Amino acid sequence: MYQLPSELIINNVSELQQELIAYLSEHTDVVIDISHVARADTASIQLLCSLQNALLKTEHKISWHGESDAFRDAVNTLGLQQYLALS
């Protein structure tokens, strides 16, 4: 399981991308823990959409773990809850 940091902001997107690439090289199932996310911006959500898009091409998807109002609010504001399969 990959735990997202508390701040998903544009300043951290490059680092987040590198960490997700490393995670993907070691795991076939992508489970992401959102429970510590206190802030999320569009750039970070776009990165996660890109990850979801790549996974869907291989018939996989992200599985979400935990709860975060900030993360859900950002995803809902962008209208991406269905695309990200965030129930």
Architecture overview:
With 87 residues, the protein is of the alpha/beta class. The mean pLDDT is 94. A 3-stranded parallel beta sheet has the order 1-3-5. It is globular and about 30 Å long. The chain is 45% helix and 16% strand.
Number of helices: 3
Mean pLDDT across residues: 94
Question: What oligomeric state best describes the polypeptide chains here?
Answer: single chain
- Give me the Rg, rounded: 12 Å
Give the termini separation. 18 Å
What is the N-to-C order of secondary-structure elements (H for helix, E for strand)? EEHEEHEH
Helix content range: 40-55%
Point out poorly predicted stretches.
none
Strand content: 15-25%
Order of strands across the biggest sheet?
Answer: 1-3-5
For the largest beta-sheet, the strand count, sense and barrel status come to: 3 strands, parallel
Structural class by SSE content: alpha/beta
Task: Please describe the structure with a list of short key phrases separated by commas or semicolons.
87 residues, alpha/beta, 3 helices, two-stranded parallel sheet, three-stranded parallel sheet
In short:
This protein has three helices and five strands. By secondary structure, it is α/β, with parallel strands linked by helices.
Q: In terms of topology, how is this protein built?
A:
Layout: E1 2-3, E2 7-8, H1 13-26, E3 30-33, E4 39-40, H2 42-57, E5 62-65, H3 69-77
Parallel strand pairs: 1-3, 2-4, 3-5
